[in-house]
Amino acid sequence: MPNIGGRPATIARDDILRAGRELGMRRLSVKAVAARLGVTATALYRHVESRWGLERLVGESILAELRLRDDPGHDLERHLLSFALQMRGFMLEHPGLVTYLQLLFPRGDGGQRLLNTEVDALVRRGYEPGAAIVLSGAVASLTIAMTASEENSMAAEEADGAGLDRERQAVRDRLAGDDRLAGPSAALPQVPRPEYVRLLLTASIRGLIGSCPPGRPIAGMVADLAATGKGL
């Protein structure tokens, strides 16, 4: 809402949230929201303490719309894969959200609700709460990291698709000229991105379940992992 007659515009927290949602997480900043509302940054700081507070306000509002589906017929592996794919799909639908989550998860009520929902689902499948927190957090972290890589690739394609194609071709040419790598790299199947992501998530989830099976106390799992690390 712009200034009228030279008087400072009056804004509310809901106005900031609305403007932030319209901008989206990728373009979100105090300066951008202030410009959209026709006010100074100082006016925003009366309602949000910093850019961190602005990110949290908008990011948690978006996360509040994600409702995780839990199919009781899914075994543990299928459930965790579904959890990961639901998170991935939601993040890709909201550009910039993955960067917000990558810094710290959970950061507010929306993320905490999601974590609680997933912990409850794992407790129903035989985990004690501490192990459920570790396992769900690990799957969420992997999913966030992989989705961030996907979003970066898509942003590069949007910014300069032709340039990225040239870079990809340069990589293929470099591999083709390597006596050791040419044959194996040429024989690799071309897996579409969604299937490749699903493959990596499935392999990671199987490894996590192997390290942290249902019913195992978290203390034992952490002790075994620490012992393994010392031997490396």
UniProtKB/TrEMBL annotation:
<protein>
    <submittedName>
        <fullName>TetR family transcriptional regulator</fullName>
    </submittedName>
</protein>
<dbReference type="InterPro" id="IPR009057">
    <property type="entry name" value="Homeodomain-like_sf"/>
</dbReference>
<dbReference type="InterPro" id="IPR036271">
    <property type="entry name" value="Tet_transcr_reg_TetR-rel_C_sf"/>
</dbReference>
